[in-house]
Amino acid sequence: MKRAALYARYSSDSQRVESITAQLRRGREYCAAHGLMIVKEYRDEAFSGTNTNRPGFLAMLDDAKRHLFDVLVVHKPDRFGRNEFDYYRNRAKLEQDGVDLVFTGQQFDMSTPEGRLMENQLVGFAAFYSRNLANEVRKGQRENAYEGKCTNGALAYGYKTDREKHIIIDEERAPAIRQIFQMYADGHAYAEILAWLRAHGYKTARGNDFGKNSLHDILVNPRYIGTTVFGRNVPMKNGRRNNHRAIHDGCLVIEHAHEAIIDRPLWDKVAARMERNKNKGARFTAKHPYLLSGLIECGVCGAAMVGTTNRKSGTTKFKRYYRCNQRARKVAKTVCGNSLVPADDIERFVWQRIETVLTEPAFIDRIAGRVREAYASLGTNRKKQLAQLRPRRDKLRSQLDRLYDMVEDGELDEFDRARIAKVKQSLRTCEAELADAEQQPAIPLLTDEMIRAYVAKYLKTQKDGADNRRAVMEKLVEKVTVSPDSVGILYKVGFDWCDW
Description:
The chain is α/β, with parallel strands linked by helices. It has helices at residues 18-33, 55-65, 77-80, 84-96, 113-146, 174-185, 190-199, 212-219, 264-277, 282-285, 325-328, 343-358, 361-409, 414-439, 448-462, 466-476; strands at residues 3-10, 37-45, 71-74, 100-103, 159-161, 167-169, 228-230, 252-254, 296-298, 305-311, 318-324, 341-342, 477-483, 486-491. It has 16 helices and 14 strands. The protein has a 4-stranded parallel β-sheet with strand order 2-1-3-4, sandwiched between helices. Strands 9-13-14 form a 3-stranded mixed β-sheet. The protein has a 3-stranded antiparallel β-sheet with strand order 10-11-12. Mean pLDDT is 77; it is low at 13-17 and 495-500.
């Protein structure tokens, strides 16, 4: 008696778990009628036929390779697979392992040319159905995207949907998004932003603490300026998907699709800082430190210059250099003739120029003036914030009182209840912000002499140590351009700051 195995599958689009029960019942009836002994049953629940990584299916293929059964009984070809290539590849595996494939719902003799033709047609129809269904689903999702509705994907943190599935701002979480973008644009590190989020009780959608990866995903998500990018994760040529792919030709980009949480100038400021930091990570992973990594560029072709080392033959001593990245990648060698630049020499030269700036009396005076202005603006901003928050709190309280009057009069419906919940949440947020503003300590009164002394002391401490020097370079230097016969330093401060 031949040994048989049963395989059943249902997908989550239009079927239920009961369909597996029906498939297995038909399989058992077929085996009883044809004298087959069932040794094992395999099932996959809520798995698409276009997915070959189905646990039950893979276990079946593995057992077939071990010759645990002679016949595989399946309801129809589309239960086995909906992709022609995968279907015939796995079909061939079964044949190589000596396993016959039979169908209970569409019986035909696959040992004949006519049977093979019927099989080809059924497999083609199954693949067409799957692709056509996916196309129709995408068409509906694209229309939803144009209308500012959710496309059934995960919503970006800070957004929610209304009853018609339109994407709207979630005012409970949106303040966290605004703070993340503002802090990053102001130069704060990820650790400082994460500390602020923890201190204010913000969690991810899954209830976890935010991490660096989630912060990065937020800062590069165009959703927050109201832009929808649809189709980013369409399968690539190798069949794989990637939700973090850059925007490509297959994407649908819709600007102003829904309300923005942040404005465009803030988005551009964040994007500019991320671009500046893109090449700076190599400084922390390189075996040898390069103070100018991410700041230095080739004056011949404009490409970034990267750190490299050469070892003297027969020794263990290394010498650090910067070289044009175009030459490092062996690109355009005939165009760029820039040579290696000794790292010690160029770093010493740039730091000497920066020291001249740091010790310039006019520079220190200008810094002191900026500190004085910043302190003055802190007091002004606090007063403005209090002047805005207190009337807003009083207005929200009045709105809530009027809504409660409606409750007492029995005039409340479901829309009014939703309005009450929204006003209550807005009031809580406003009162929390007001409490923070009122608890801020008074701004101390500083004299010009105190500010100058502090600035001079701070700059002196920053001159010592490689990490401190790098921090100063990032604050003062926009870029260093190296040509065969010259070095140019572009500062982030104007020349009106001092005499140099």
